[in-house]
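When time allows, look over one protein, given below as sequence and tokens. The question is which stretches look regular and which look disordered:
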Amino acid sequence: MVNSIEGAIDPEPAHPSRLLEQAINNLSLGLIIFDNKREVVFCNTRYLEIYGLTSEQVQPGTPISNLIQHRLNLGLKVLSKPDEYIRERVGNAAVPATIVQEFTDGRIIIYTVYPMPDGGGMATHEDVTGREEMSARLKRNTTLAKRRKKTCGYETCNSTPRSTTCRRGYASSTPHTG
């Protein structure tokens, strides 16, 4: 009979490179690494998910320009012509930068480029749409709370748009906007 502890321990430990790949694929950030020819060396699963790509579309050796064109096809908003935008992104040396991308479907993706010594680089990509929506919602709620306090003088007023009297009994000359 096998001891329960012995059965739980894998007799052959996982190879470090396999563990590293698993860790990178479980990041919340999309990660892409490219060489000095602006071709893909590696990307993680989250990168594929963020942009709706398949692993066949992002093989090692895929030109970064193809991935930028894919983003444009998804509705990436740019000020210049698409061809000019692609040339700007791949024609210059990789420099440290953080860029906010807005898409026509409302998504907001932030990516940060980190140059590598050999002229290539890596970039992390994060879909911050939910965070930005939450921030806007909190800002609206704070504004509403300030208006309520100003109207009735009570910090935690729970009045509704249908009511002109807050729960503290203060009558308002204008309906609350809660």
User: Anything to note?
Assistant: Residues 2 and 8 are 10 Å apart (CA to CA). The helical segments are 4-8, 16-25, 45-51, 64-74, 82-91, 129-152. Residues 1-5 have pLDDT under 50 and may be disordered. The chain has six helices and five strands.
